[in-house]
Amino acid sequence: MPKRISFLKRASLTRHQMSQKLFKIMEDKKSNLCLAADVTSQAKLLEMADTIGPDLCILKTHVDILEDYTPDFGSKLRLLADKHNFLIFEDRKFADIGQTVWYQFTKGIYHIAEWAHIINAHIVPGPGIIEGLKGSSLLLLAEMSSHETVAKGAYTKKAVAMAEKYPETVMGFICLHSLTKDPGMLHLTPGVKLEPGKDALGQRYRTVDEILIKNKSDIIIVGRDITHAKNPIEAAAIYRKRGWECYVQTLA
Ligand code: S5P
Fold this sequence. Notes:
- Helices cover about 40% and strands about 20% of the residues.
- The protein is α/β, with parallel strands linked by helices.
- Bound molecules: 6-sulfanyluridine-5'-phosphate.
């Protein structure tokens, strides 16, 4: 099996400044764990960011599920990101024409551009969506974890081709497998548990080993198995450790 290049080396193989920063955080913290902090209370989210933050390279938000959102949310989360050295990824999954996604990214209630380091987008609209988000730090949804997803085959190939045209904006992919030989591109995979399985609404879970060793992804995105654990801090520590072991095991 071909071995992987270290995250540290890959930091020098991308022109994207946010990717360089992320690769360095991963190496410094020995973490390729992204927490999907899917809770509906801002206070709870900020508490998790403070307690689990030391184990994370990225904390992923869905700001629009917060029931008690206040405009200082972004600045409070940024303080914790600085304190614990992780990046904030707002999982907004933009999916409209360029002009509209630019408004959605910069305006409205959430002003995502002011606090999120990383965002993501579907490729359904075509390259105009990347044009609309130009200069941001963008992940393209090339594959999805859910049952009977249509993001596969030619669709996935199209996502990779679109990413290659915008190296100054696109950092990599939300995907299930490594999709490109370009070592500067990042692969982040959701649908992760310690045992394979599914939820009641179409989510499909694969194991950390399958995603990082067999499928050669870079970062695991873990949600409910940490947030709903009896002890989320311990659960996060287990995922960080296993994720890093899998990475080290596949190094050249
Ligand atoms: O294909 C996808 C893409 C994403 S970003 N499948 C996903 O599940 N996600 C997100 O990952 C989803 O929105 C959620 O925040 C997280 C998975 O959460 P879990 O609780 O199932 O681990």
